[in-house]
User: What shape does this take?
Amino acid sequence: GADTLSFDLQVDTTGKLGVYLEQPEVNRKEYSFIGAIPAGFKKTFSSIGGYLRDLKLVFTPSTEAYKSVGSFIAIGQIFPSAWDWYSFLNILALLSVMLGVMNLIPIPALDGGHIVFTLYEIVTGKKPSDKFLYAMQLIGMILVFSLMFLACGNDISRILK
Assistant: This one.
């Protein structure tokens, strides 16, 4: 709760503190076929909500969460070193949900941006001009590439440290 614990810890020769998390105990819950459907939706939307909160932190500079953004190298490192089907499928499901949520962000180069333009066309009855769509697509691509460079740059800087 509100207790503060203090420990004397030793660091290695590089000044780093080796910390690892213990794998939590897995509680197995049995569902019927019909009961598994709402449980699956609940888990999916819980994961999406958590991911959206984390995504908000990435775009809040004071949290410095942008430093934890990673590319394929970081993704490869989150998998356990020993094969475990449960962990593998759990991480795979999380990555799928994360990719789906990222794709729906209303950035013009992504599907979310196209949805916004389609909704605009439905509401107003007019298609945005090709010049406007081109400019928005360009801005969207710059945002996506910037995020990609941030992720790759973070991975490279972690390797070099």
User: Anything to note?
Assistant: Residues 130-160 form the longest helix (31 residues). Helices lie at 33-58, 72-78, 85-103, 111-124, 130-160.
